[in-house]
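User: Hey, my collaborator sent me this sequence without any context and asked if I could get a structure. I don't really work with proteins. Can you help?
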Amino acid sequence: MRTIRRSPSSRLYRLAAWVLVAALAAPPSLLAQLGPEAPPADPVPANPPDPDQAPGSPGEATSPGQPGGKQAKPDLFSQSVKAAQEAVEEYGAYDNPKELERVNRIAFQLLAKADFDRYPFSFGMVDMPVPNAFALPGGQIFVTRGLLDLEPDDDMLANVLGHEITHVTHEHYLKMKKKATLMSILGNALMLGVIVGAGRSREYPNPGHDPLDTRDNSGDILQGAAAASVVVSELLLRSYSRENEDDADDEGQRLAAAAGYDPAGAQKFWALLNSRAPQAKEYGYLQTHPFAEDRAKYATVRAAELKIQERGVADALRQKTQGQLMTWIDKNRPKGPELGFVKAASLATWPKGPVAESLRLEKLHVQRDDTLAKPLLARDFGTVLKSYRAQREQVVGLTPESPLLAKLDAEITDLETKSRDAYPKAVETLEGGIYETSFLEAFLANYPDSPRVPEVALSLGNAYARLGNQTQAVAQYLRASEAGPESPAGIKAHAGLRNLAPNLEMLAALQDLVDREKEPEMRKQAEERLAAQAKVYDDLANGAEYIHRYPEGIHVAVVMERLNKLADDLYGEVVLYQGVGETVKALDRIQRILTHAPLSPAAAKLRDHAVVANERAG
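Assistant: No problem. I've predicted the 3D structure and written it out in structure-token form, which is a compact way to encode the shape of the chain:
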């Protein structure tokens, strides 16, 4: 599991002309110029199929029961892939193969009943702690770790996925001009930047105005990764209209029943949200899927009118979709992260057979070769071997007769041999006392059962403590203490914890100490300090890390409330700094809000004022 944090671009100064793409109140004429053309009132027959184009590939309509169907927009799928890849980069991929297979199994059973084949769908998971699910217009649908952590049963998950599928198949994004326009300019936004401003606000008045200053200070340019963060967050987190949500609920329950799942799972899911994640009323699913109380009532009524059909399989559709995704790769030649995203989607879509096994091996070889290219004592064999064993376990569960297993076993043996051969040199370096932090990290990953673990973890904890990284220092001191409680290193590590505990500020470090420390007095001290710090911490990153690691922790509601307050304070600073032309300071505050509090009201206000910047010639 991982979450990738964005960092602001250093290219902050650009002469820019503004092209409005994100104002809800924009004139229709302007939106018409910027957004995609409105869909025709009646279906438009597709052109005769190209014999060189794979059936069902993006751009060709082959809806079951509708020969030819409606011509798909040729660029939409590519734009949507770009947005999906940015979403995974922004929030991180949630690594849970069993849940990923469950999501895809259920989703494709539903999709088989949807009578829609204009784009190859894909279903993935992102490492967001808040419960949510969202869809991009080209058929990329995501479920968050936070939603899966609620442990919804298959009926609940089927209704959630049916709802998101319907947003795509009924093209709800076209009815939201803001989403449609953002899709149409996504590429320009990533290349040229996004101007983000706080807008005019009575709450935070401009501190002063110089009549001789002709600059427009109502926004500053975010570029590259930061621009992507704004656009993708707006695409994913902006809620649909009441009409669209009702439509998605209605059709989603119908799809669930048609695929053999109980449509009452919709109402059960609403109840689960309220019981397990009451804070979700302000964050997550209930924020991006509004009108919850009424929709839960309607879901109960609809469920009583739907008959659950016999449950089937959708293996053929999954294999066909994988073929469509691989054909799209061959024809469009994406590179870098976009290529990686589509390959990962192809593997998740159908994890069996030669295509899947080729994709597995390719990914493992990239990771292995990157590791072997590093200096010997910096090679993290442990992480690579973990990946190999995880893939092997999946193959055994899916196709135990696969010839890939023999190849994986041979490569695992080779990596284990290389790791063992490096151990004497690693011990020699350890005893020499001169090494870098990366050596200590690799040692613990490669040799977790070594008798030297307490000593290495202590050294690594000391290194993190010197760097001011409280969370990692506590984690390594605890590891040293647990691995060798009576050893000299374990005793020193416990002393290090005693020294840190009274002054710890990082909420995640305090929670780690509460959960793992065996000494009652220190644990009580950590509990009291955590309760106090949750109300007064002053760094957005601190609260965001706690929520990410402990989304159901007893202090999460207090931490979220404080996070909102800190984000709102920074929003006020954005207005002040923009008012006096302090671009760098304003951008710093903007980036901190969007990175660490993307679901806060302050972040929503910033996204409301996002515009694309176009470099002025010369």
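In plain terms: The mean pLDDT is 80. You can pass these tokens on to your collaborator as they are.
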